[in-house]
Design brief:
Blueprint: H1 3-18, H2 22-35, H3 40-52, H4 56-69, H5 74-86, H6 90-103, H7 108-120, H8 124-137, H9 142-154, H10 158-171, H11 176-188, H12 192-205, H13 210-223, H14 226-239, H15 244-256, H16 260-273, H17 278-290, H18 294-307, H19 312-324, H20 328-341, H21 346-358, H22 362-369, E1 394-402, H23 407-413, H24 417-421, E2 424-431, H25 436-442, E3 447-450, E4 468-471, H26 475-487, H27 497-508, E5 514-519, H28 540-544, E6 548-552, H29 559-569, H30 585-593, E7 597-600, H31 604-612, E8 616-618, E9 639-641, H32 649-664
Parallel strand pairs: 1-2, 1-4, 2-3, 5-6, 5-7, 7-8, 8-9
């Protein structure tokens, strides 16, 4: 084949190549190769075509020969680098791209390709420099901005990454992956709402994308939209049933919804696809622990730790199993190990806080207890323009105390309000609006007001019109030693006189006998909390005891629940006419103040009875941090704990029955 024919056929092959018809161009290139096997440009073109067809392994030797035949051809060196990278040889690829740049230093595409090879090597700082050099010549190249953003994330430059992703979206608003990755940065910053919005934008552009659905579901869990999260995770599983992470994330949402049996199934489905997924095992272990399947839970968690001994969550979850078995020393060691690995692991820190407080270590326990907000064990943490109070004396200063947990905890922490007031000039209390009347009457020298609505996420800090602020749950760590010795659990609530008289008249109408109020469960009954509450029929003997007038204090009780209890007891459970036991706390306090005794599970009713100074017997499960290292609950002098060896609540109820018989006689 003479030169004229060869050149004509090479031009035809190149035309086919440029038109995208690689299936026709490659055979023609190969035919020409048999005529001129050392022709540098032909070697380069065939190598590039094979690379475009995904045959990087065949492309590399051809491009190596092309570079050897044309050592000053920068484009050939760059093409070789691209083929080497596609063949899984990023180090050799980076060298080839650097060679190209020595020949043509200002070529933007060479810097871009070098950045890609460096990123594959994990050399992201060098990759960032390469991408920035590329942008000097191609400032509007979307791919360079996108890859630069990802490398910025890798080196921890989140501000730079956000700027680059926004540059991508300014150039290409339909870039779904940029929205997804931007959401990932917001998630790292714990900007859950912004992350969710970014993921939603990505899904508008790329509906049904499994990875983004999983990401959005995870953010909705953080935001408390658990049903929405579960819906996202179900869609993600449907989109890609072979994606283990989708199943495991679905399990997380189910567990957050207190559906541990379904969570176990989801975790098992994920682990069947990824048997070595330590995080999935850690989550499965927790779900099994909640269900009381401690042997299997410990086996799963031990397996997770054998795969990854640095998995902090697995250590923390293993500690929960130990706590259920009351292996306190082992549990503390596991929690210490978890927090040494990840000091920001809020759930483990909260578990350690409760264990330390239970043992009476108020300083260390109180410090760890500050993790309750991050662990989701308190209402959202509020921020203020003034410093947090550290317990210092402020004779002329003002302090805002704000509620942060449920009604029972609020009543418990309120037993420290007098001690706090003794240290400051003015004490301002924000309380549950249902307690406004009670607290105003009970703390007449303090300023009491209902808590305001929680500000939306991302709002600026609140201006409290006080010099310091303090969440109520922090008071025990600051004041426990002083308050417990000074007040010794003294009652502090003062009921309304008129309503107390009305309740006294109603109780008198029931005849003579021991007036005993009963409350058998919390309104929030999760699988984990079930261990602290007994069966309903255990309470029936208390109703049936002669000489006892049983009074219902169970807020939220269902009619069929009361009917079943009355049927089992063969006795009536009296209910104060027209009294809303959930929202009318003035009426509840007036009723309790007239009772001879309250018997309750761990509920706000027990705390209110203690705050009123009414004798109260309280059951409890395994471990109780609120004892603060004592044999009692020192917050309330009138409260007695019913013995429950090894968490045996039925034993506690038998004790209550026997004690009631002795009291009546």
């Amino acid at each position: 084949m003479n030169k004229t024919v060869f050149d004509a056929r090479l031009r035809e092959a190149l035309r086919l190549h440029q038109a995208g018809d690689l299936s026709a161009a490659v055979p023609l290139y190969k035919t020409l190769m048999r005529q001129r096997p050392d022709h540098g440009p032909l070697l380069n073109l065939l190598g590039v075509a094979l690379l475009q067809l995904g045959s990087a392994g065949q492309a590399v030797p051809l491009l190596q020969k092309a570079v050897a035949s044309s050592p000053t051809a920068a484009d050939m060196a760059d093409n070789l680098g691209s083929a080497l990278r596609a063949a899984g040889q990023p180090a050799a690829a980076a060298e080839a791209h650097r060679r190209a740049l020595t020949l043509k230093p200002d070529q933007p595409s060479f810097h871009f390709n070098l950045g890609n090879a460096l990123a594959d090597l994990g050399a992201h700082r060098e990759a960032v420099e390469a991408y920035r050099r590329a942008l000097l010549g191609r400032p509007s190249h979307v791919g360079t901005h996108f890859n630069l953003a990802n490398s910025c994330v890798a080196v921890g430059d989140l501000e730079g990454a956000v700027a680059e992703f926004r540059a991508v979206l300014a150039l290409d608003p339909g870039h779904a992956q940029a929205w997804n990755n931007l959401g990932g940065i917001f998630a790292v910053r714990q900007q859950w709402t912004a992350a969710a919005n970014a993921y939603r934008q990505s899904l508008l552009l790329r509906p049904g994308h499994g990875e983004t659905l999983t990401n959005l579901g995870n953010m909705l869990v953080r935001l408390g939209d658990l049903e929405g999260a579960l819906d996202c995770h179900r869609q993600a599983v449907a989109a890609n049933p072979q994606h283990a992470e989708a199943h495991i994330s679905q399990g997380v949402a189910l567990q957050a919804l207190d559906r541990p049996l379904e969570a176990v199934r989801a975790y098992r489905a994920g682990l069947a696809l990824a048997p070595g997924h330590a995080g999935g095992m850690a989550n499965l272990g927790t779900a099994l622990e909640v269900l009381g399947q401690l042997d299997e839970a410990e086996a799963v968690l031990s397996r997770a730790l054998s795969l990854d001994a640095s998995h902090a969550e697995a250590w923390g979850n293993l500690a929960l199993c130990r706590l259920q078995r009351r292996q306190v020393g082992s549990a503390m060691a596991d929690l210490d190990r978890a927090l040494a690995l990840d000091p920001d692991l809020a759930n483990a820190r909260m578990s350690r806080a409760l264990l330390l407080l239970e043992q009476g270590h108020l300083g260390k326990g109180g410090a760890d207890y500050e993790s309750r907000f991050a662990a989701g064990e308190a209402r959202p943490q509020r921020t203020f323009t003034v410093p947090a109070w550290q317990g210092e004396t402020l004779p002329e200063g003002s302090l805002l105390l704000w509620r942060e947990q449920g009604l029972g905890d609020e009543l418990m922490f309120a037993s420290f309000y007098h001690a706090a007031a003794a240290r400051v000039g003015q004490l301002i209390i924000e309380c549950d609006k249902r307690l406004l009347g009670l607290f105003t009457r009970s703390f007449p020298t303090l300023t009491v007001r209902p808590e305001p609505p929680l500000p939306p996420p991302g709002s600026p800090p609140e201006q409290p019109q006080a010099q310091r602020h303090c969440p109520a749950g922090t008071l025990p760590a600051l004041l426990a030693g002083e308050a417990l010795s000074a007040y010794q659990g003294s009652p502090y609530l003062v009921p309304d006189r008129r309503r107390t008289a009305v309740m006294r008249d109603w109780l008198n109408s029931l005849g003579t006998g021991l007036r005993v109020g009963l409350c058998w469960r919390s309104r929030l009954m999760t699988h984990r909390r079930l261990a602290s509450y007994g069966a309903l029929d255990w309470w029936a003997p208390l109703l049936a005891e002669p000489g006892v007038i049983p009074i219902n204090l169970q807020y939220g009780a269902l009619p069929e629940e009361i009917g079943l209890l009355e049927c089992q007891a063969g006795a009536r459970l009296h209910q104060a006419p027209g009294l809303d036991l959930t929202d009318d706390l003035e009426g509840v306090a007036a009723l309790i103040a007239n009772l001879d005794l309250v018997i309750t599970a761990p509920t706000a009713i027990g705390e209110m009875a203690g705050a009123l100074g009414v004798p109260v017997w309280r059951t409890g499960g395994i471990g109780d941090w609120s004892r603060l290292g004592t044999a009692v609950r020192p917050w309330f002098a009138s409260q007695k704990l019913l013995p429950a060896p090894a968490g045996n609540l039925e034993h506690a109820m038998r004790s209550a029955y026997n004690m009631l018989q002795r009291l009546r006689s």
